[in-house]
Amino acid sequence: MHASAPAPSLVPDESARLQLLQSIATVMGASAPVREALEQVLEEMRRTLPILRGSITLISPATGEIRIEASCGLKDAERLRGRYARGEGVTGRVIQTGQAMCIPDAAEEPLFLNRTGSRDLEHEAIAFLCVPILLAGQAVGALAVDRQPADAATLGADMNLLRIIATLLGHAAFEGQRFMDDRSSAAPTLADRFHTSSPAMRHVLEQMEHVAHAGTTVFLQGESGTGKEVAARAIHAASPRAAGPFISLNCAALPENLIESEMFGHERGAFTGANSLRKGRFELAHGGTLFLDEVGELSLPVQAKLLRVLQERCFERLGGTQTLHVDVRIIAATNRNLERMVEDGSFRRDLFYRLNVFPIRLPALRERRDDILPLASRFALRFARANGREDARLSSAVMDMLQRHDWPGNVRELENVMERAVLLLGTEDIILPQHLPLSLHGEYRAAQESLPEQCCLLPAHAATLPQRIAELERSCIAEALAASNGHMGKAAQALGLTERIMGLRMRKYGLRYQSYRHRKTNA
Predict the structure, then answer these.
(1) What average pLDDT score do residues 116-133 get?
(2) Taken in order 258, 259, 262, 264, is the CA torsion positive or negative?
(3) Sigma-54 factor interaction domain location, by residue (predicted)?
(4) Which of 36, 156, 409, 441 is deepest in the core (most CB within 10 A)?
(5) 274 CB-side CA count, 13 A
């Protein structure tokens, strides 16, 4: 537990409280767009109440996904990461059950996922308060705030105020759901979720389409970073269980003495520290899908108990005697060779056959090179917009470098490379080789040196040679202007050009030195 001084209640004095509620009612009665109105409500709350962060999550009518639609105290990139399935995390649980939750210390609550990555739970003490937004008795979303920890009476008073505010948001939240997805009433297909032109990936999508509508156990295989959890979520969303919870468990992330409690739950007093009843992932996934990631990391004793649940669809919590029956679809995944593990005795043969009902192998990124550039462009654009930029394009040299890399970390590595590149961009919206990690430069140089001197490497999706030269020239001039703080003379000298030629080139490419004078000097 984090030690902290007593914190003030969210609840202000009576007049301030009434003024806040009146302000929120006024915002809700105005004709502003729904999302803008919800943002205004959170800003009104932050001006009056001592909250650190706030968010309003809504349920997508098309996919059933829960995502943050309005926030305060969150960066755009953090808000975009706020996505949950029903029953997943505190937010997903509140929406699934329609019951508010008050977490006095977020760092001590396993259900608290910190999906946005906005809190440093090792150094920051946070109480998390989340209430459902209800309309006609149905949850359409949730209102949540972060605040400093406080005593039970203070947190209880805070929860009462949040419930009142959530009641005022019901109709606006319901209206906001209409704008969360495309106006088409059809739910997105698996092909819509995976933008791919690769034959290998198309074959995977066909398999996923076939199995999605059945209750069959699915076994996803593939290297780390190939998108096994993304595939599991897509199968769940396309299945008849889409309205049910999607619960995931990383079997490699927990020590052996905790994994059994996470799977099956425990009764109060089952072991030291078990101060209350806790439901396990199987119980939470009832009526939906349970995704067991890195299932090859389970110990033999836990494998035996998992086998029984798969066979009988029943279990007992740790320390309990009541047999619980569950209706759960299992999707398992691993990057290990389970067949080899079966032969050497580290994985049960009977469990392997239970899991390996419908195997799907996700290809490595190097096996679907046609997808590298479309994926890179999508990631670059997404991170650019999350960081307040209009666009981010790949230069031809970068396209070439990306296609020649073997991507041992697969799609996850590509995503990380694009996020880093966007953060390093200058005033121009074009990603250049210097924005990529050194590991990609070494491979590119080796490829260049292996060719005859008169040859040059052209990327598969390159423009014409004059277009590539013009792109490179414009980028070099823009970088020189940025480095010289818009000083044309210094930029021209750095490039080995006369100021006259520099001026002509700038006019050709529509560059203005004033745009690069972003640093003010002190007099």
Answers:
(1) 90
(2) negative
(3) 194-423
(4) 409
(5) 18
Q: What is the pLDDT of residue 11?
A: 58
H or E element at residue 56: strand 53-59
> Looking at the domain assignment, is residue 57 inside a domain?
yes
The rounded distance, in Å, linking the Cα atoms of 404 and 460 is: 10
Return d(Cα 18, Cα 22) in angstroms, integer.
6
Q: What is the pLDDT of residues 244-275, one digit of tens each?
A: 999 999 988 788 778 888 888 888 877 777 77
* Domain CATH code at residue 100: 3.30.450.40
Q: Which of 461, 481, 512 is the last residue of a domain?
A: 461
In terms of domains, do 18 and 116 share one?
A: yes
Q: What does the alpha-carbon distance between residue 469 and residue 313 come to, in Å, rounded to a whole number? A: 64
Could you tell me if 297 and 148 lie in one domain? no
Residue 189 has pLDDT above 60, yes or no: no
Looking up tokens 């739950």 gives 265
Per-residue pLDDT reduced to its tens digit, 343-378: 999 999 999 999 999 999 999 999 988 888 888 888
Same domain flag for 105 and 172: yes
- Confidence at 464, pLDDT banded by 50, 70, 90: low
Task: Give residue 164's pLDDT.
Answer: 93
Residues 172, 26 within the same domain: yes
pLDDT band at 451 (very low <50, low <70, confident <90, very high): very low
Task: Verify that 151 and 163 share a domain, yes or no.
Answer: yes
DSSP character for 292? Answer: E
Question: What pLDDT, on the 0 to 100 scale, is given for residue 31?
Answer: 66
**Do 283 and 357 belong to one domain?**
yes
Do 49 and 160 fall within a single domain?
yes
| Cα distance between residue 459 and residue 457, in whole Å | 7
Distance of CA 202 to the CA centre of its chain: 24
Q: What is the dihedral of CA 323, 328, 329, 335, to 10 degrees?
A: -70
Say yes or no: 431 and 446 in one domain: yes
